[in-house]
TrEMBL record:
One of its GO terms (molecular function) is kinase activity. GO terms for biological process: phosphorelay signal transduction system. Residues 175-324 form the GAF domain. Pfam families: GAF_2. Keywords: Kinase, Transferase, Two-component regulatory system. This is Histidine kinase. It comes from the Bacteria.
Length: 540
């Protein structure tokens, strides 16, 4: 790693420059001294490496990005008047009535020493001796070089120590939470942050929730969930690299960020870095401070390198989750098959016997009662099969592409209707439960159209969205709509059991189902479900 400015927990350059700059300021009876630096690798970012001021409140932070009211001299020292240096991340500015400006260079970038008066005083001659000017530039350059070497060794040593701690915990920790705790502890020590926390997928690959935390105090912060692209972590996932924010609450890059909750926790500056396992973002690592801090490009590079080691601990977490998922699925399958072998077969027998008896009896009153029994058995059978299908599904674990939803609907038995599948939107992922609800509706609607519409064509249109996904199935048959078919609105002359199954599948994920007469012919089945069901704690 090219160590250009203070990185991670190191403040070696800042600390080395501080005494030198203060001595120069006092010697020249100046109000303020500043050392500015523009790294070659980030030529658009000028920063304050160190500052010394009569008023401590006017001092700049280590590595604080700044701008100047005029271009700085690039080659020769000179005296300037009316020069302003402004912070790029907060309301702070230093106005020099007069200042001695001494440029200097090294292999990594371009530096500038500013020493001058910030009050309303009249300009005062500075630096008449060219030799003294050159000596001051060489002194600052040598101090920066020495601090850089010291800091580089420190960062390298701390990174190796952090990697060792994570690797040992991944192998030796008694449980996975201990392994993750070691990752957070190593991260916060490496960058010298007050807090560290980890977010993991929750209810699908696009929604992440905070999992384990170090130094977090408020309960609200522990329940934050964010989508892809939202907040600092969402931005890091979208960009596939670490992202830093010196002033989280005022960062205009962040979309739908949980600003209120983060402010309540007291976090001002933070960084987030995606942790990649097997080419997928398996988690996001955060570090943050409760006071403003100017994280740098070196901090980003350091955190990115550390996440390669953090993936070791996360692999163990994912392996345990997979084992738990497999066990849960086996239990679900056992319960579902046991219910199928007992209750389902019993309902089939009841319905079959009731239908047989209905035609064997002579009185219309008994026949009506037997028909009611048969219909009740059929209704219960349909609802139970829907529940068993849900039990056998993987719920919200993983996602299903919209195109796969359409493909599964098209597996409905082919009759005489021609089919037009349409994907109206991007081929995004839906929560598995939502995808299964749409597949169930689509299969039922297409099958009913084949059997009962008497039409020639059916349109199957899926409109995936970031919040809601919609399915529309329209045939051109002679179906009719009747009202009063139970809760939720109209029914059709399609079998009532199919309508109940569709409604149950959609309502299970808090969606909506509507069935209407199409114009000019046929029946229109419209299902709307949340793309990723579940409550969210996102504050703007």
């Amino acid at each position: 790693m090219e160590y250009v400015v203070d990185g991670g927990g190191s403040r070696a350059i800042h600390d080395a420059l501080g005494p030198v700059l203060e001595e120069v300021r006092v010697l020249l009876a100046a109000d303020m001294g500043l050392v500015l630096y523009r790294p070659r690798r980030r030529s658009d970012e000028l920063m304050a490496l160190a500052s010394a001021a009569v008023d401590p409140a006017a001092a700049f932070l280590a590595n604080e990005p700044v701008t100047t009211s005029r271009p700085l001299p690039g080659r020769k020292p000179r005296v300037v008047v009316e020069l302003e240096v402004r912070s790029a991340m907060r309301e702070l500015r230093a106005r020099f009535a007069t200042a001695l400006v001494i440029p200097w260079r090294d292999a990594s970038g371009i530096g500038t020493v500013l020493v001058g008066q910030t009050g309303g005083r009249a300009p005062t001659p500075w630096g008449e001796d060219p030799t003294a000017r050159s000596e001051l530039g060489r002194l600052v350059a040598a101090t920066v070089r020495s601090g850089r070497e010291t800091g580089s060794r420190q960062v390298d040593r701390e990174l190796r120590e952090a990697a060792r701690r994570v690797a040992e915990a991944a192998v030796e920790a008694t449980d996975v939470r201990a392994a993750i705790a070691a990752v957070l502890d190593a991260a916060h020590l490496l960058v010298g942050s007050e807090v560290a926390y980890l977010s993991l997928p929750d209810g699908g690959p696009d929604t992440f929730a905070f999992d384990q935390m170090l130094g977090i105090r408020t309960p609200d912060f522990r329940h934050v969930r964010v989508h892809h692209g939202q907040g600092l972590g969402g931005l890091a996932r979208a960009m596939q690299r670490p992202v830093r924010s010196a002033n989280y609450a005022e960062d205009e890059r962040l979309h739908a960020a949980p600003v209120t909750i983060t402010r309540g926790e007291g976090i001002v500056s933070a960084m987030a870095a995606p942790i990649t396992v097997d080419d997928h973002v398996a988690g996001v690592l955060y570090v943050g401070d409760r006071q403003m801090r100017a994280f740098t490009q070196v901090d980003e590079d350091l955190l990115a390198e550390f996440t390669d080691h953090a993936a070791l601990g996360l692999r163990r977490r994912l392996a345990e989750n997979q084992r738990a998922d497999a066990l849960e699925r086996r239990i679900r399958e056992d319960v579902a098959y046991n219910l199928h072998d007992t209750v389902v077969r019993g309902l089939i027998t009841i319905g079959f016997r009731a239908e047989q008896a209905r035609y064997a009896v002579g009185t219309s009153e008994v026949a009506a009662d037997l028909a009611t029994i048969a219909e009740a058995a059929e209704s219960c059978l349909g609802q139970l099969r829907g529940e068993l299908g849900s039990l056998l599904s993987r719920g919200d674990i993983g996602g299903v592409r919209a195109s796969e939803v359409l493909e599964q609907i098209l597996t409905a038995p082919q009759g005489r209707l021609s089919r037009s599948p349409e994907l109206d939107g991007e081929d995004i992922e839906l929560a598995r439960a939502s995808a299964e609800a749409l597949v169930r509706v689509g299969l039922e609607a297409v099958t009913n159209a084949e059997r009962h519409s008497g039409g020639h064509h059916v349109i199957i249109r899926l409109v995936p969205g970031s919040l809601t996904s919609r399915l529309l199935v329209v045939d051109d048959g002679a179906g009719r709509v009747e009202t009063g078919g139970g809760s939720g609105g109209p029914t059709t002359d399609h079998p009532h059991l199919g309508l109940q199954a569709m409604r149950a599948a959609v309502e299970r994920v808090h969606g909506r189902l509507a069935v209407h007469k199409a114009d000019p012919l046929g029946i229109e089945v419209h299902a709307a479900v949340p793309t990723w069901p579940g409550p969210e704690r996102i504050s703007s």
